[in-house]
Amino acid sequence: MSGLEVHLPVLQVLIPLLAAPLCFLIRKESLVRFFAIGVTFACFAIATHLLGQVLDGPVIVYEFGGWARPIGIEYRVDILNAFVLVVVSGMAAVVFSAGIGQARRSIPEGREYLFYAAALLCLTGLLGVTITGDVFNVFVFLEISSLSSYILIALGQSRRALMAAFSYLIMGTIGATFLLIGIGLMYQMTGTLNMVDMAERLKDVSDTRTILVALAFVVVGISTKLAVFPLHQWLPNAYSFAPPLVSAFLASTATKVAYYLLIRFCFGIFGIAFVFEQVGIDVVLLPLSIAAMFIGSIAAIYQTDFKRLLAYSSIAQIGYMTLGLSLATQAGVSAGLIHVFNHALMKGALFMVAACVAWRMGGTKIEAMKGLGQRMPWTMAAMVVAGLALVGVPGTVGFVSKWALVMAALEKGSLLIPFLIMASSMLALVYVWRLVEVVYFEAPDTEIEAKEAPLRLLIPTWILAGASIYFGIFSSFAVDVAKRAATQLFAAGS
Amino acid sequence: MTSLVSHLGSHWNYLAVIILMMIGLYIAISRGNLVKKVMGINVFQASVILFYVSMGKVAGGTAPILIEGEASIVYSNPLPHVLMLTAIVVGVASTALGLALVVRINEAYETVEEDEIVALDRAEDERESPEVVR
To answer: Is residue A68 predicted with pLDDT exceeding 60?
Structure first.
């Protein structure tokens, strides 16, 4: 490996971290914008390179300052987190190039650079949580990303965004502190913070009550961040009142990283034997996932706001992911990971559509979207494509992940779960159809002056919508990587 | 019963942590005043800091400053203490951000009581779309 290549894991986090304060120095809006876009593309390039490396070779271990574990902190890149890094940095690149800071009326004139600084810090935190091999580092990066996402959400145009950000702050801080308590208890029993060492030493003490309590704190803490039903209360308000592109960014990255963390802790650190056979968290997690699938979808049907509808639909989709995890099989985890990738694409596309609508209409009330199919044909076509993907129509990414999930459930010998997956997909069809009906088949109440969204927004929207078809047809990339990630994870855990 | 009492007596630091933790969590959940909520979170975080700090104490251990040539000295574990420096920073940052949000909320709603804010939001909904509320 060449000189620079060795340092790629740390550059992955360091570049956006250093870029954030640089935004303060640059200040000039157009420059900051290009600078931030450049940074996200650099992150994406590094992440794809890392993924290529771990797919061909062994796990990459980066030791800080040359101190090996257990003394030093290390970054550890395997297929699982390289895959999540690619998803997060890729979505960041797309959403940033749509001009994440250029939301109408959200940001005071001349303050855009502050917004970009917060967004880059949020990206730093998300990438850091994913790449690190040290559990305390996870907490610190999680708080970096959370604190900056509270700022981003609070910048929404209505005053309700402030309240949404505040409740998210309360919930998020409690969740992160729970994680910290769990980490403390684990440290107490193992004397290490390194994930690999911890996994080894936990085997000897896994029958103690301390570790049982640690598992409870960790799982509840992460589930709060992941918005697992019934800990999802913060999510609908946060996503519906945040600036539209911020919702697109957070919906396709923040919950995905939390999901990765849950996988890492359950399978990589505590170990499958302890979490599922000895404690049996699937007994709790499986019903909650199914409840999320239905309650999220049913709530989405009754929403009067487009973004709020998407937020509730996210809760249902998170249910699919945790369902894959709670099957506790290799196929289940890889199905969950495939859905992480696919859901990022389609929900990203739908929130981008919401951003287009908000840009032209000033709001995203479904009532006001009547007849937009004629006014904004390209935007609405993207909505239909991504909406069909959400339902799981063959040929779209949604089908790929639901197929994988159904197969994983069948492998486990359950006929009920596949049936429930189908049933909740029907509910998704109801809310997507409701949108299509309003947009294409209802005449507008008053003459609206909306026209097609600017290309700056439209092109990223279609990149995501196009990707949700492309990866639906040529599904082998996501499926292969997710399968290999799950295989590696299970091989290391046993 | 006596074993429980002696158990608590030797683990009184954890007892203090749990009591503080519950006080903080209870304030954050039950109070409608947003400033009090932030303070509750603060107490909650402080309890975790206490937990880590007391965890690092080794019975009979001295401050972890290496004294050369004496192998028999027992030192306390400095690592949890150092971790808490970071956690304190995180706590200060989230408290500051929470209070800053409360200031903005107070400017926008002219109140910091959660139920009054909810009532204001609801009134706004009814003004905007009376047919939805029915």
So the answer is: yes
